[in-house]
Design a protein that fits this description.
- With 388 residues, this protein is α/β, with parallel strands linked by helices.
- It has a single domain, classed as Alpha-Beta Barrel (TIM Barrel).
- 49% of the residues lie in helices and 11% in strands.
- The strands form two sheets. Strands 1, 2, 3, 4, 5 and 6 form a six-stranded parallel sheet that branches. Strands 7-8-9 form a three-stranded parallel sheet.
- It is globular.
- The relative contact order is 0.14.
Length: 388
């Protein structure tokens, strides 16, 4: 009898989290599949299981309702190349949507988003990941807005002439010509406010963060970052920054990368690198970016890479931490799927999003709070940026 009751309760619990997950609006604020798959000749119309974290069918299976696709190129792109490449990625998303009119719609306003949801389609948005793609030209920013871009990350790891990145403020702090936003950088933020484009402060340096949040008149977005206190890496937010986002009315969407979640991950990476030092040195001599080196070796040694990954509990810990510090209205999900080489063991791809809902319920979050975390908080900030 006791076994029967246990099994019954277990089944009810499973049905409960699955039902909530399907009914809630799940918004993921950062996915890199355009730059890491589409621009390399893969078609997300097809089943790409084992090759990517994402494709259209798996996004549906994972209950993703709103996906912000990252428009990305790294520091190797600059004047006369970055803006053009970004527009090629934008073209690719529109082409994917045109081929799949029954499955997805590219949206740029809250009204269009709600219409897509009502039609049971994926609401696809775009975020430009790196201010270098406007090439110091406000007309290019205006062009991105006209094409439907909903946010721009002020910097990627590379600084611009008008904003310093977290990486540079950490590694080059004594050699930077300036820190934070220049007058032109503040003009960029004000223009984004007027365009209804969210100001994204992932990747930016601390001084840039404070300059931007003190300049913006709209709630800001942190599209894919975590809590520095739990994992002290340059890409994460310190407590005073987290509180400032809450005061501003913004939202912090958590990155799934193991190295931003687990403070011990880097130690395990160091041990892994020591085992493969000769190979890594050889690849690094080719001047590949660090993120491509890590991706290459994790794919070459999948069993070892799998053992480096933390459990889902560390992501839930970051959610708990931000909720306790800033409130449940200021946290969401920005997976960085297809832009990361390692995620918690349970999060193999986008089909595993329901496990986050399950974990939140197990930690005592109400259904209302789970809905906020899954997408409600982002939708509020998105709408607030477009209000006059």
């Amino acid at each position: 009898m006791r076994l029967f009751l246990f099994v019954t309760l277990f089944l009810v619990s499973c049905q409960s989290y699955k039902s909530l997950h399907q009914k809630a609006i799940l918004a993921d604020t950062h996915n890199d599949v355009l730059s890491t798959a589409t621009m390399r000749g893969l078609n997300i119309d097809n089943d790409l299981t084992g090759r990517t974290h994402s494709d259209l069918a798996r996004l549906k299976k994972g209950g993703v309702d709103v996906q912000v696709f990252s428009i990305f190129c790294d520091e190797r792109f600059g004047k006369d190349t970055a803006f053009r490449f970004a527009n090629t990625e934008i073209d690719s998303l529109y082409a994917i949507a045109a081929r799949n009119r029954d499955k997805m719609s590219v949206v740029s306003t809250p009204g269009q988003l709600q219409q897509a949801l009502g039609e049971k389609k994926l609401a696809a948005l775009m975020g430009v990941e790196g201010g270098h793609m406007i090439e110091d030209n406000l007309a290019f920013l205006d062009s991105f807005a006209r094409r439907g871009v909903c946010y721009m990350t002020l910097t990627w790891n590379n600084s611009t002439s008008w904003a310093t990145s977290a990486l540079d403020e950490t590694m080059k702090k004594d050699s930077l010509p300036h820190k934070g936003l220049t007058d032109f950088g503040k003009q960029v933020v004000r223009r984004m406010n007027s365009l209804g484009m969210m100001v994204d402060l992932s990747h930016v340096g601390e001084q840039t963060f404070w300059d931007a949040i003190n300049t913006s008149t709209k709630p800001i977005l942190v599209s894919h970052s975590c809590a520095y206190t739990l994992c002290p890496v340059f890409r994460n937010l310190k407590d005073d920054q987290i509180k400032a986002v809450a005061k501003n009315g913004g939202v912090i969407d958590l990155n799934f990368y193991s190295g931003f979640l687990d403070s011990n991950f880097q130690k395990r990476i160091t041990t892994f690198a020591a085992r493969h030092k000769a190979e890594i040195d050889s690849i690094q001599s080719l001047k590949w970016p660090g993120y491509e080196v890590e991706e290459y070796f994790f794919k070459k040694y999948p069993a070892e890479a799998g053992n480096l990954r933390p459990s889902l509990s560390v992501l839930l810990d970051h959610i708990d931490y931000i909720v306790k510090l800033a409130g449940v209205d200021h946290v969401g999900l920005g997976s960085d799927f297809d832009g990361i080489s390692s995620a918690p063991k349970e999060l193999k791809d986008v089909t595993n999003f329901p496990l986050i809902t399950k974990g939140l319920l197990q930690r005592g979050y109400s259904k209302s709070d789970v809905r906020k975390i899954l997408g409600g908080n982002f939708l509020r900030v998105f709408s607030a940026n477009q209000s006059r």
